[in-house]
Specification:
With 177 residues, the protein is mainly α. Helix content is 53%, strand content 5%. It has eight helices and two strands; from the N terminus they run ααααββαααα. It has helices spanning 2-8, 18-33, 58-80, 88-97, 117-121, 124-134, 139-147, 159-170, and strands at residues 106-109, 112-115. The chain has a two-stranded antiparallel sheet with strand order 1-2. Helix 3 (58-80) crosses helix 8. The longest helix has 23 residues, at 58-80. It is globular. The termini are far apart. It binds fe (ii) ion. Fe (ii) ion binds at residues 98-99, 124, 148-149.
Length: 177
């Protein structure tokens, strides 16, 4: 399973801290093992069940958000210098984990992939947080998972979370009806 996770998520190798990297891998292994979906399915299923005729896959959307977040952070660090502090490992780990809880939101009903009742009640920012906590993912990364979506609009996001939130939405909003 570890190899499968690293195969769908090459960006995991960008995390320099070995301990953090292992935690991220373990979260994804746990999510896939407890999901109706396999790692291979993630390269095929559309990234949103809400968009009609969506041809962009879950992994393409997720990997784009991670790549955008890292690019954005690099430009900001280059141009703002020591006026801004961005922890690249925290940012990358967070961006890779924001939708890990989504794996638990799905169910297959009448041969169709849908969102389960439990998934509607406990959306993936919450289920993702529960998975992250299970593997002792640090609070700075848990914060990104918890606040990446609309649920995070009510509080204050860290700089890493602001970047990941926007990277996620720019790779989603243009495809919304
Ligand atoms: Fe999300």
């Amino acid at each position: 399973m570890r190899e499968k996770i690293l195969e769908i998520w090459p960006e995991i190798e960008w995390i320099k801290n070995k301990e953090l990297k292992e935690k991220v891998i373990n979260c994804w292994i746990y999510a896939v093992e407890n999901s109706v979906l396999s790692a291979e399915d993630l390269k095929v299923i559309p990234f949103s069940l809400l968009i009609k005729d969506c041809n962009i896959t879950f992994m393409t959307h997720k990997r784009t958000a991670v790549q955008l977040a890292v690019e954005m952070a690099n430009v900001m660090k280059k141009n703002f210098g020591d006026q801004i502090k961005i922890d690249m490992d925290i940012l990358t780990a967070g961006a890779i984990l924001i939708d890990v809880g989504k794996l638990l939101e799905y169910e297959i009903k009448d041969n169709k992939l849908t969102t389960s009742e439990a998934g509607k009640l406990v959306r993936h920012p919450f289920s993702g947080l529960a998975i992250a906590d299970r593997f002792s993912v640090p609070p700075e990364v848990q914060h990104i998972i918890a606040t990446h979506s609309k649920e995070g609009d009510f509080g204050k996001r860290t700089v890493e979370s602001i970047i990941v939130h926007h990277a996620d939405f720019v790779s989603f909003d243009p495809f919304k009806a």
